[in-house]
Design brief:
Elements: H1 3-11, H2 14-20, H3 23-27, E1 38-39, H4 41-47, H5 52-61, E2 67-69, E3 72-76, H6 77-86
Antiparallel strand pairs: 1-3, 2-3
């Protein structure tokens, strides 16, 4: 199991995470991550054990969704975990 998935499940059980935000909520075109769910590029790179440039490339190619606050790219932790669970080729072994 990837480091970030383990970290996410340490504080709350998987069932509690599903209750907090359903897949329908995070997949809605109107979803915007709340402040406690927002991540910067460096944090996302650490989460996926990759470089910031890879995160920029994934965002540009549409592999991971990006939100913007002005010019600053923001990522949703919950949405990234959901995508990683369904797209295992983003994870490094």
């Amino acid at each position: 199991m990837a480091k970030f998935i383990k970290d996410g499940l340490q504080s709350k059980s998987e069932k509690e995470l599903q209750i907090e935000v359903s897949n329908d909520d995070i997949l809605s075109p109107y979803y915007y991550p709340p402040p406690e769910d927002q991540m910067r590029q460096r944090e996302v790179a650490e989460m996926f054990s990759t470089t910031v440039q890879t995160i920029i490339n994934w965002s540009s190619s549409g592999k991971i969704p990006t939100f913007r606050i002005g010019k600053v790219p923001i990522y949703s932790r919950k949405l990234l975990i959901y995508i990683a669970r369904n797209n295992r080729n983003l994870l490094k072994s």
